Amino acid sequence: MLRKIHFCLLAGLIFTPAFSQQLGYIPFEKSSTVVSSTLEFAYDDWTIYQTALRAGNEEIAKQYYARALNYRNVFDKKNGFACPRYTDGSFKKDFDPLQTHGEGFIEGNSWNFSFHVPHDVYGIMDLMGGEKVFLTRLDELFEMHLPKKYYEKNEDITEEGLIGGYVHGNEPSHHIPYLYAWTSQPWKTQFWTREIIDRMYRNDINGLGGNDDCGQMSAWYMFTVMGFYPVCPGTDQYVLGAPYFPYLKLRLPNGNILEIKAEGVSDTRRYVQSLTINGKKYDKLYITHADLLKGGVWEFKMGTSPNKKRGQKAENKPYSLTNGIK
Q1: Which of 256, 255, 265, 323 lies closest to 296, judged by CA?
Q2: What DSSP letter does each residue of 72-87 carry, written as one string?
Q3: Alpha-carbon separation of residue 230 from 244, 247, 316 (angstroms)
Q4: What molecular function terms (GO) are annotated for this protein (predicted)?
Q5: Contact indicator for 27, 86 with CB cutoff of 8 Å
Q6: What are the b/e assignments for 215-246, b being 16+ CB within 10 Å?
Q7: Is residue 155 part of a domain?
Q8: Closest CA to 142 of 211, 87, 92, 188
């Protein structure tokens, strides 16, 4: 009985009258934040799916596995973006993926929020049109010129907080530079995370590239300078990037010591050539929480150009709920 109550409480936390289980999304007629809310509910439902698996409740797990895929229902395959959708199933026609206001999102646009499916990266990759399109979209996000009209009247976004169209001051975007780990070009995570640190965290009165809501800007920095980040909380994985400093020493909650070494790391030597953990070669692009708590010595060998062979095997990639849309 207690277990049933527990799951009912969890489900109640993410219930909204505007959400239609029959449709699998919030219709645009019902709310101004229909797309971002539907995406966030899908992730919330995935966490309940994970909880149900651990509790051994197969019925609840099956139900919430299906609900975790509801993000698919707000993707317009014609343009590859998450987009507002009406009750009749049609998508908003005059849709602007760069616009923050009036497009179905809260404090963000579709260019950033379309990547907000941390629990099923391969699934979102397929919806966008496959890995080639996904990579192009990631590159373009960081490299584009965002016209001033899209942020000049936004109280939360200034030009200083932008890298291309990527908005580091908005928390739902923070996992995006780590998404390269699921692709054939994982070294781009190493490039962009260092760019973000250099540009968004400066020793200046206006040196923070966003509002540190609940400490998230600081949390991203602390994780990223150590060389890893929890892209999908609810898994036991941290996706690896590259350390920012040549040496870090951590005393872990269980008393173990973790040393992270990256001799010679710099803005020019930002690419990971290899990683050893306690002297053993480590090719995975993620580290588990259990392995993190063991402590020991992580030694990154750094270089001026990427090692394009590292992390390419499927078994070295981080978690994804599915292997894509089949």
Answers
A1: 256
A2: GGGEETTTTEE--B-T
A3: 17, 21, 16
A4: peptide-N4-(N-acetyl-beta-glucosaminyl)asparagine amidase activity
A5: yes
A6: ebbeebbebbbbbbbbbbebbebbbbbbbbee
A7: yes
A8: 188
Q: Residue 299: enclosing H or E segment and its boundaries?
A: strand 296-303
Distances (CA, A) of 300 to 183, 237, 314: 21, 19, 21
Compute CA distances 189 → 135, 169, 209, 295, 297, whole Å: 12, 18, 19, 24, 22
Question: Which residue type does 278 have?
Answer: N
User: Could you tell me the two tokens for 212?
Assistant: 């540190």
User: In the 8-state DSSP scheme, what is residue 302?
Assistant: E
Closest CA to 165 of 147, 178, 182: 147
> Parallel, antiparallel, or unpaired for β 257-261 and 296-303?
parallel
CA atoms of 64 and 103, how far apart (whole Å): 27
pLDDT tens digits for range 167-179: 998 888 999 999 9
Number of domains in the chain: 1
CA 195: distance to chain centroid? 17
Q: Are 287 and 228 in contact (CB under 8 A)?
A: yes
- The tokens describing 215, both together, are 């400490």
How many Cα atoms within 13 Å fall on the side-chain side of residue 287? 20
Is 199 inside any structural domain? no
d(C-alpha 274, C-alpha 151), whole Å: 40
Category of 195 on φ-ψ map: left (φ > 0), alpha (ψ -120 to 50) or beta: alpha
Residue 269, domain member (yes or no): no
Domain containing 72 equals: 15-174
3-state secondary structure at position 276: strand
Q: Please report which helix (H) or strand (E) contains residue 281, including its range.
A: strand 280-281
Q: Is residue 277 part of a domain?
A: no
pLDDT tier at 3, thresholds 50, 70, 90: very low
What is the Cα gyration radius of the chain? 20
pLDDT in tens, 35-78: 999 999 999 999 999 999 999 999 999 999 999 999 999 999 89
Domain harbouring 151, CATH code: 1.20.1610.10
